[in-house]
Please model this.
Amino acid sequence: MAYIIAEPCIGTKDTACVDACPVDCIHPRRDEQNFASEEMLYIDPEQCIDCGACVPVCPVSAIFAESDLPAQWQEYAERNRAYYVKEQTNAK
Model:
């Protein structure tokens, strides 16, 4: 996984990162049904191309390269992965 969205996104869900992403790997978008019910946004580890375009546009500095993820937010790597596993399961 190239980039991970961590705790500062909770309750913020600013979608500037969604708009900046060239491969549409950050979800849920505002127009997706589960946007209101999710507490934060997530980066798809399979689609992320490690470009970093999302990092500078995040107003709460919630996006980190996996190698730079602060120790107190390590659980967010799994939360990002789990979101996409759940979404794939629900799509079937």
Q: What stands out?
A: The first helix runs from residue 16 to 20.
